[in-house]
Amino acid sequence: MVDQVTFRLQARPRGFHVVTREIMEQLPVLPDRGLLHLFIQHTSAAITVNEAADPDVLTDFESIFNKIVPENMPFLVHTLEGPDDMPAHIKAAMIGHSVTLPITAGRLNLGTWQGVYLCEFRNRASGRGIVATIYG
């Protein structure tokens, strides 16, 4: 069985956000076992899995990525959409646009502290489109 749904995550401010629950609310009943593939349809945001228990981790991710890829680098050429746009593309490429998660007993088989992150790199972004493909 293969099932696919497309939906939008609510708009969020720049930063790292745990969206596991919001994603699960958009999905049909999961099979007993299989895989869930999530793809974000944007070039200035990313999706990943990481620590979901301590909110300080989200803050630290934002700080690290802003230090590695700061805004207003004088050599950037793609600047028409604002100083946050090209750095957002670079950050998104570093993290990636998809994750694949195991499904076990009809639930995501994440580790105890893991959650799915929306990594929002724009200062003012709209909701982000997600394509979820369920294999089971």
From TrEMBL:
Q: Which PROSITE patterns does the annotation name?
A: UPF0047
The cross-references to SUPFAM superfamilies, in alphabetical order and at most eight, read: YjbQ-like
Q: What Pfam families does this protein's entry cite?
A: YjbQ
Q: Which InterPro entries match?
A: UPF0047_YjbQ-like, YjbQ-like_sf
Q: Per its UniProt record, what Gene3D superfamilies does this chain match?
A: YjbQ-like
Q: Which NCBIfam families match?
A: TIGR00149_YjbQ
Q: Which family does it belong to?
A: Belongs to the UPF0047 family.
Name of this protein: Secondary thiamine-phosphate synthase enzyme
Task: Provide the species name.
Answer: Neolewinella xylanilytica
